[in-house]
Amino acid sequence: MPLKLLPAITSPRDLHQFSKDELVLLSQEIRDVLCNVVQARPAHFASNLGVVELCIALHLVFDFSKDRLIWDTGHQIYPHKLVTGRFHEFQTIRERGGLMGYPNPNESPYDLFMTGHAGSSVSTVLGLKAGDDLLGQDDRKSVAVIGDGALPSGIVFEAMNNAAGLNKDLLVILNDNKMGICPRVGGLASYLDKARVAPFYNGLKRDISWLLNHVPLVGEPVEQMLGQFKDGIKAFLHGGMLFEEMGFRYIGPVDGHDITSLRRSLELVKEVKGPVLLHVFTEKGHGFEPACKDPVKFHTPAPFRRTSDNEIEPIKKSSSRAYTTAMSEAIHAAMIRDEKVTVMTAAMCAGNDLGRIRDEFPTRFFDTGICESHAVAFAAGMAKAGLRPIVDIYSTFLQRSFDQIFQEVALQNLPVTFCLDRAGLCGPDGPTHHGTFDNTYMRTFPNITVMAPGDEEDVAAMLDFSLHHDGPCSIRYPKANVERVSRSLTPMQHGKAEVFSWGTDGMLIAYGSLFPTCVRAAQKLKNDGLDVGVINARFLRPLDSEILHRAIEEAGFVITVEESSLNGGFGSAVLEDANAAGLRTDRIRRLGIPDRFIEHGDRNELLADLKLNEAGIIATAMSLADQEQFV
What we know:
Structural class: alpha/beta
CATH superfamily of the largest domain: Thiamin diphosphate (ThDP)-binding fold, Pyr/PP domains
Distance between the termini: 66 Å
CATH topology of the largest domain: Rossmann fold
CATH class of the largest domain: Alpha Beta
Largest sheet: 7 strands, mixed
Shape: globular
Strand order of the largest sheet: 9-8-10-11-13-12-17
Number of domains: 3
Number of helices: 24
Radius of gyration: 27 Å
Number of strands: 19
Strand content: 15-25%
């Protein structure tokens, strides 16, 4: 059906011209556009379907050309992009050079932060409000929209505590859809479930408590009656008690799909002084029945087309196997072999393909929610107790637990295994999700063994080695399909690289999943008359100094290849090691991710841009071979 309203929106001010019925139509048009995008490429879907009415209502009540708005997390930003003048570019979302799948200040003044990790919205909005007040712009409103899945993050409570202490005029909208990427877990989840059956509450608990505490008592029966009455009032107002005790005025719950009700509630809280929490109930996948039935599958679904009866059929099924799946299968096999192996993840059961493990080993699987710091410290406690915990978290999210990796794991030298999924370029997810820094921060810690499988053959062997090693280990692998290099596999030994082939003209030293790319590049170079060998490094810490020194001394040149930051990464470690041994380093070149944030786009396109594909590696080798000192 042709779009009637959405193409005409150039800014949120245009929303005010629409009637109530037209706003309902606009909501449907936004959902139609979201469905069309997902037919073209994987994109965040169910979460965006769930915030359409909330987005419209927010832009009707506030003027975010002046007021402040942070979406937490930013993967629910699509409706916001559509109503802030980006409709005509929307089909480019998550494509190289197109719109980013998260907020992007370079795209629009309506996007204030790139919010790809959960939990920081209350802190940043509070900082914006404090800054505006200090600059004499106290008429600017500040709003954070945070999901119930992100709510347990420790930084949220740090920020709420600070906001209450500062008593700033701040609105936090709790978008409660009973989900993160997977169903929410933990004590807060149970608390919010109870709030769903509580009546609307406008934050007057303190006044009622004051009244009850000042009623004169006239004998024991009256005292008992009033005590029971007070307990009843507390139970009646259960939904907001936690937030009220933290210093926020609680209002809600409100139907997040009723624009009229939402507008009324937002108008109510707009002028309230002090910190306010508006509790909004939404449905993840709202307006598209398949997504409502399976919001986990439709969080970021593979491309599909809608049938005439509003069902779906996949556009293309991939038969390829991902590194994530290979590691999940290796973990599953390890848990069968050893009852001491446990697994924990931070709200990424689906993303890390751990559903089978959760179902078959419920007492040894732990989803901590979006609480990475806690997950790592929790694992340290398990290791101290004598278990073999595996922490399975995306590389970019594990950064949030840097201090716990240091203090609770490395410093104690505890046998925790870190499985760093999405290490390297995460394609269309962009700079908030590229896992480019883990090599740099992991290799700084004493005691930790840092590894990366060169291909599928290394995955299970590396995990098995880690689970038998007396100390912490880190294994990184990309968001990519596995490859397999045909060879006689060298056993996994601590700090030992695998020599695939030896070359007199040069050596390619691959750390991680670009090993097969290096093998192909070396074969093409050999066909062109250049004798180049390949080493599958396997270990970053400790390095195989014996093999590396031999390569540096014997080969005409050495090229290190890694899908990670060059600053402090594998290539840097090789240079440091060579320098310490007194070897020449002018014949070493490093290929990796340069000192900048990498845009979103197809992973293969990004690898080509960074000269990390076959053509880039070959060009670097040919350039070095042509230099006089290497001839």
